[in-house]
Amino acid sequence: MAARFVPLGLQRAGAAGRRPCAPSTEPLDTATLVGRMLVHMLGVFAEFERGVIVDRVVSGMEKKASRGQWACR
User: Fold this and answer.
1) Which H, E and C letters describe 23-52, residue by residue?
2) For 14-43, how does the pLDDT look when each residue is reduced to its tens digit (9 = 90+)?
3) Who has the most CB within 10 Å: 24, 25, 33, 65?
4) Which one, of 47, 50, 48, 28, lies nearest residue 38 by Cα?
5) Contact in structure between 32 and 20 (CB atoms under 8 Å)
6) Domain limits for position 52
7) What is the number of other CB atoms lying within 10 angstroms of the CB of residue 42?
8) What is the pTM for the complete model shown?
9) How far apart are CA 29 and CA 61, in angstroms?
């Protein structure tokens, strides 16, 4: 039996006013090759987004530390 879920990224894209690439009510069929590929692609984009956020946070912390504005607790 295939897993049925709506990717959060598609919901966010619809909520932000942008048209998602697929209807957010349409489930991904993970029993097919295309469905499994899409799940993996969504995972890759989520991992990339998380990495970008971490880089920005670390960069901001380094900037504040160089100016003496950030103190460790």
Assistant:
1) CCCCCCCCCCHHHHHHHHHHHHHHHHHHHH
2) 544 455 555 567 788 889 999 999 999 999
3) 24
4) 28
5) no
6) 8-66
7) 15
8) 0.55
9) 42
The total number of structural domains that make up the chain:
1
Tell me the C-alpha distance between 36 and 28, whole Å.
8
Task: For 50-62, write each residue's pLDDT tens digit.
Answer: 999 999 999 999 9
Residue in 20, 6, 9 with CA at minimum distance from that of residue 47: 9
Query: Does 42 map to a domain?
Result: yes
- Is residue 71 situated within a structural domain? no
Which pLDDT does position 69 carry in this prediction? 84
- Written as six digits, the tokens of 60 are 């901001």
Q: Is the dihedral of CA 39, 33, 23, 4 positive or negative?
A: negative
